[in-house]
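Aim 2 progress update. The chain analyzed this quarter is reproduced below.
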Amino acid sequence: MGEFIENNLDVFYWLTIVMLSIAAIVIIVFSVIQMVNNKKAATKTLLTVGGLLLVLGLSYYVLSSDEVLSSYQKYGIDNITSKIVGMGIWSFYILSSIAVGSIIISEISNKFSR
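Predicted structure tokens:
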């Protein structure tokens, strides 16, 4: 069985890519249909996507650095890669802080509303 998989690894790779692409297209199509049918949900979705793009833009253009240490240059890391990795790290910090803060505020408001 292992030899069969090893010989056909390229086929399995492209099959995975095709299946993921079909799933992504189906998700996007049904999301657009749902947004057209429900205007209130569309507004909420667009605000959420806009907020995510704002966090990603802030992380990339303001917070991340394109500095590359000499010890990392031997791995082929350039300024763009460093900036993208920094954006990912800063985005994680910001979104994690928002999530934890939302949980804490939600729990505190539930305690006071009772």
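Residues 1-37 form one domain. The chain is about 85% helix and 0% strand. These observations will guide the mutagenesis experiments scheduled for the next reporting period.
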